[in-house]
Amino acid sequence: MALQMGRMMHKILTLNNISVAGLERLPRDRYEVASEIQHPDAILLRSFNMHDMAIPPTLKAVGRAGAGVNNIPVEKMSKLGIPVFNAPGANANAVKELVLAAMLLASRNICQAWDYTRGLEGDNLSLNKAVEAGKKRFAGFELPGRTLGVVGLGAIGAHVANAASALGMNVIGYDPTITVQSAWRLSAQVKQAHSVDDLVSQCDFITFHVPLMEATRHMLSGDRIKLMNKGTVVLNFARDGVVDDEAVCAAIESGHLHAYVTDFPTTALMGRKGVVTLPHLGASTAEAEDNCAVMVADQINDFLENGNIRNAVNFPEVSMPRTNGVRLALANANVPNMVGQISTALADAGLNIVDLLNKSRGDVAYTLVDVEGEGEVDESLIERLKTIDGVLSVRLL
Question: Please, is 316 exposed, middle or buried when counting C-beta atoms within 10 Å of its C-beta (0-12, 13-18, 19+)?
Fold first, then answer.
């Protein structure tokens, strides 16, 4: 029996409040969106922890309205043939502005000075005397001419590097996996470091913009801190765990480092000298939330309706214009002869391939194929494709 190709109603489960600007990108005549919904085709979320969640068997995609995906079981999704989308760069300006603010907080001792002033009492005369007597304790330094090291030159890191350069700072960057797109975004004034050790030894400020993984955990360690200049300021608006908090606090206590400003408070940091903790404000602007939601909603829309993949953390980038043919989308293990087996199954069903695109990323491969011919795309064909060893999912679009 031939399958019907009428327009489908897609069900979207939201696990957090998602910006209306993003939800409006999912037309109501084709999408049902709710925080409680059965048999969802896709999930949209921000910080909800999916690791202990039962995965609906109907799920085809996950969209994170933000950059980090530590709250999503990405490896599990990959094995199920489910792409995990995020919104890289959508919050870049918001994080950039906060990093710049953090450099000013640290260089001018603003938080400590504010705490001092808030504790003053008395009439105006006594307040003025206390202000004049105390201000010397909070003398700072200016940013122009200082050197900022940026570890990680993706969308956020590039924004930070360019903004610091525009402020008159010397900027050194390090990113062994920098993309051509990110390199084009960088100011010509940004210099290249050959390693993290090379970078930290030259800086007055150092900021991290890398994901948390085994290779980046405690990237700033006690040993690396020993390579840093006396009086350096450490900034962490990437992820908790990228910086060894205890080692940084010890270096501040000893007078080796000047300050630590982080978006990730821990009990170890509370009340520590020279430490400013913020409540994960990096992407907390209305503009960033809108940008992230719009970006990920558009990606989910394009995937569910056309099979295209943009900005998935676990699948390759795949985009193919639609033809007049019927489209199939297949996720499979990245092993030899998968395309050959798929093509054979289509030929046996009397179908001709009009267009085909196959790409891989790590252990996962993804194929879009448009077909037409005398045969029919029916249940038996879909089932045959699903039985090919290594095929993770098959969709008719």
Answer: middle
Q: Fold for domain 1-91+286-314? A: Rossmann fold (3.40.50)
Reported confidence tier of residue 1, pLDDT bands at 50, 70, 90:
very low
Compute the distance between CA of residue 207 and CA of residue 357 in angstroms, rounded to an integer. Answer: 39
203: left (phi over 0), alpha (psi -120 to 50) or beta: beta
Pick the CATH number of 92-277 from 3.40.50.720, 3.30.160.140, 3.90.180.10, 3.10.50.30: 3.40.50.720
Which ranges constitute the DSSP H helices of the chain?
Answer: 20-23, 74-79, 92-107, 110-118, 124-134, 155-166, 180-185, 196-200, 222-225, 245-253, 286-306, 338-348, 379-387
297 pLDDT higher than 90:
yes
Q: Tell me how far apart the alpha carbons of residues 224 and 336 are, in angstroms, rounded to a whole number.
A: 43
Closest CA to 301 of 63, 46, 40: 63
Pick the closest to residue 262 from 252, 241, 248, 276 (CA basis).
276
Closest CA to 62 of 90, 34, 81: 81
Q: Does the domain formed by 316-397 have CATH 3.30.70.260? A: yes
pTM greater than 0.85: no
Contact 339, 358 (CB under 8 A): yes
Provide the 3-class DSSP secondary structure of residue 59: coil
Residue 109 and residue 338 in contact, taking contact as beta carbons nearer than 8 Å: no
